[in-house]
Amino acid sequence: MIGKLVCVCGNIIMAGLVAGCRMTEGDNMATDAVNVVVMETSMGNVEIELLADKAPVSVSNFLAYIDAGFYDGTIFHRVIPGFMIQGGGFDSAMHQKSTRPPIQNEAKNGLKNDRGTLSMARTSVVDSATSQFFINVVNNDFLNHGSRDYGYAVFARVVGGMDVVDKIAGVATGVRSGMRDVPLESITIKSVRRK
Questions:
Q1: Which of 37, 44, 45 is nearest to 70 (CA)?
Q2: What CATH number is attached to the domain comprising 179?
Q3: N or C terminus: which one in the chain shows less Cβ crowding within 10 Å?
Q4: How far is Cα 39 from Cα 18, in angstroms, rounded to an integer?
Q5: CA-to-CA distance for 88 and 61, rounded, in angstroms?
Q6: Phi, psi of 88 (to 5 degrees)
Q7: How many separate domains does the chain show?
């Protein structure tokens, strides 16, 4: 079914595809132990530590997309200064990519949506996250489990290149393909690889 990814402040982030099944903790898509991945963007590299001990489902899902090369050529399609940057679902032509089934929401894992953390983007349906993620550029307490609703699952944190994230958060944005807050010049995720 077609759903809408929503920003926690109540605004629509984007139209998203939501499949009818979900992944649970028992479904191991990528079981190799890995701590850090490198995201190469058109504005620089970002090193990301994966927090598999707290968010095993989300990390396994993220690694499955990484290993498939899914993120290569996608863009940061939603950028809001003082809030977050979101990517992992659209190419530079604003075409949405087909995804794996949605996963279980791990927002109650105790991790907070603090500056530099990565969380799974989702629709208003609790267990609807697929490939899209966002990086918090400030502490967003209202995204945490129980603050407003079930919350948004933190699964990783930036350990290098936060200056790149901040640069991305500061770019000029506008409306493209009916979506707001889209960078006027595409910011491409060239690749994401295990370190």
A1: 37
A2: 2.40.100.10
A3: N
A4: 25
A5: 12
A6: 95, 20
A7: 1
**What is the residue range of 73's domain?**
2-21+30-194
Amino acid (one-letter) located at 98? S
Per-residue pLDDT of the chain (195 residues), as tens digits, is 333 344 433 333 333 333 333 333 333 334 456 799 999 999 999 999 999 999 999 999 999 999 999 999 999 999 999 999 999 999 999 999 999 999 999 999 999 999 999 999 999 999 999 999 999 999 999 999 999 899 999 999 999 999 999 999 999 999 999 999 999 999 999 999 999
| pTM of the entire predicted model | 0.84
Integer CA distances (angstroms), 24 to 118, 129, 144, 179, in order: 20, 12, 20, 31
Q: What is the C-alpha radius of gyration for the chain, rounded to an integer number of angstroms?
A: 15
DSSP letter, residue 72: T
Q: How far apart are the first and last CA of the chain?
A: 36
To the nearest 10°, the Cα dihedral for 99, 101, 106, 112?
A: 10
Beta strands in 18-112 (DSSP E): 36-41, 44-50, 74-80, 84-91
What is the identity of the amino acid at 77?
A: H
| Phi, psi (rounded to 5 degrees) for 65 | -65, -40
Strands 154-160 and 117-120: antiparallel
